[in-house]
Amino acid sequence: MSERLTTDDLQAMIPAWCDTGELIYLSEDYYGNETEKEKIGVILDFYIICVEDLNDDDYEELMEDEEWLICDVLVDNETHNHVPISYVKPVTLKVKLEER
Predict the structure, then answer these.
(1) CA contacts within 13 A on the Cβ side of 58
(2) Distance (Å, rounded) from C-alpha 40 to C-alpha 51?
(3) Less Cβ around it within 10 Å: N or C end of the chain?
């Protein structure tokens, strides 16, 4: 087993785009069915799981499944709590500049 990361280590690994009020895509995989599509939402809050108190098996599972960072998000006027970061990705806005 590799050296365990601390909660402080994980805090330093939070992506810059993961912040309250940021636009995100919520993956279609989050819904667990094939009829839902990826949807745009907003991060309401985010949390790091305290890993110091986890046993080795729980720690490995948490890290493997990327569940150390979880978000509360608002999508389609519905709040989704405790969404693992693996189901969330940033929205990249593209701006078309007019030709001069």
Answers:
(1) 7
(2) 30
(3) C
The answer to whether residues 29 and 5 touch, using CB atoms and an 8 Å cutoff, is no
Reduced to 3 states, what is the DSSP secondary structure of residue 81?
Answer: strand
The values of phi and psi at residue 44, to 5°, are: -90, -35
What is residue 5's DSSP assignment?
A: P
Task: Give the type of residue at 73.
Answer: V
**CB-count exposure of residue 89 (10 Å: 0-12, 13-18, 19+):** middle
Q: Where are the beta strands (DSSP E) in the chain?
A: 23-26, 39-48, 69-75, 78-84, 88-90
Residue 66 DSSP code: T
pTM value is 0.83
pLDDT digits (tens, 9 = 90+) for 8-65: 999 999 999 999 999 999 999 998 887 788 999 999 999 999 999 999 999 999 999 8
